[in-house]
Amino acid sequence: MTVKLILMKFVKTHNDPQSAARCGIITTDHGQIETPIFMPVGTVGSVKGIYHRDLKEDIKAEIILGNTYHLYLRPGLEVLKAAGGLHKFESWDRPILTDSGGFQVFSLSPIRKLTEDGCIFRSHIDGSKHIFTPENNMDTQRIIGADIVMALDECCPGDADYKYAKKSLQLTQRWLERCVKHFDETEPLYGYSQALFPIIQGCVYPDLRREAVEHAAALDREGYAIGGLAVGEPTEKMYEMLEVVCPIMPEDKPRYLMGVGTPANLLEGIARGVDMFDCVMPTRNGRNGMLFTWDGIMNMKNKKWADDFSPLDPKGTSFVDHAYTKAYVRHLFVAGEIFAGQIASEHNLAFYLDLVREARKHIKAGDFKAWKDETVRRITTRL
Questions:
Q1: Which ranges of the chain have pLDDT less than 70?
Q2: Catalytic position from the list 16, 278, 313, 321
Q3: In what helix (H) or strand (E) does residue 98 lie, and over which residues does it extend?
Q4: 92-141: per-residue pLDDT in tens?
Q5: 27 has which bridge partners?
Q6: Phi, psi dihedral angles at 339 (to 5 degrees)
Q7: Is 278 a catalytic residue?
Q8: What is the pLDDT of residue 141?
Q9: N or C: which end of the chain has fewer CB within 10 A?
Q10: Alpha-carbon distance 59 to 64, whole Å?
Q11: Distance CA 277, CA 239 (A)
Q12: What is the pTM of this model?
């Protein structure tokens, strides 16, 4: 009989008196993570355009993501296993979280078919045919070796009708039970422990979301993810669903809102009890010239910055904020320089990490709600 490893620990340290916001510490074999936290997305083993040194020392990332779908296709499991897992392969010694790849199958695969057994899909790279089952997906994530892994789920579209959403949730729940069984029957490959998070689905239907929480919570895992809330539904619906699920999720386990979002989304998610976030927005929007700051949102391609020789962001914590001027970064974007996207990505990621650090300070001080309301107003202003 295989003994279930009790690995990741979460200790809640503070509650905000006027909202559901909370602070905590997650402990993994690769280090501690203070929550609330934002996790930069390193889909294929890199956070686009960012050196790992800068992730650690400048951006101060405590945990990053990898993606099972992408890593399974490239570089493939043989290479990852021979390297000793993703940590060694990408030279990152802090925690990593991997998504199961279910969302990428939903969003990228040109042809996919869901069956009871699993998800049949074609690679977006070369059209080759593959299948993810709950069992082989867990094996794949064992080989990748992330500290926190996600269960395989069907990512239900945000505009799905009730009948489809219910059927989809039931399939996700059956897959979850198989994921848990297989995960607990297998061992980590590289000498450190891994935690499995179920994903709460249910689209925009409160009763389905509640049912999903009850089912997942009964499995008593180390943490829980909230999925299917950045897939086309209105922002208000997302907040509404968080208000449904967070109060009934286990109090002593971290809650991870997948794929969200803007800086304002993070603060509103924190206020509703979310502990962990990830999103490609800081890097993707950065590459397109959008910078998030404490004073609002800048479009660096605008002519208004052409002769503005002030620092990129005087309130910023990254070295790029003080090393380069707005005029210079605007010039790089207009000239189509790769360097522009690198600078913007570094700035945005540093801002996102600064944002959650400040949120933690205000939760601990007991004035988070008033600070959040004022900050959301300020950071959503177009400059």
A1: 1-6, 109-110
A2: 278
A3: strand 96-99
A4: 999 999 999 888 887 776 678 889 999 999 998 999 999 999 999 999 99
A5: 9, 32
A6: -55, -35
A7: yes
A8: 98
A9: N
A10: 11
A11: 14
A12: 0.96
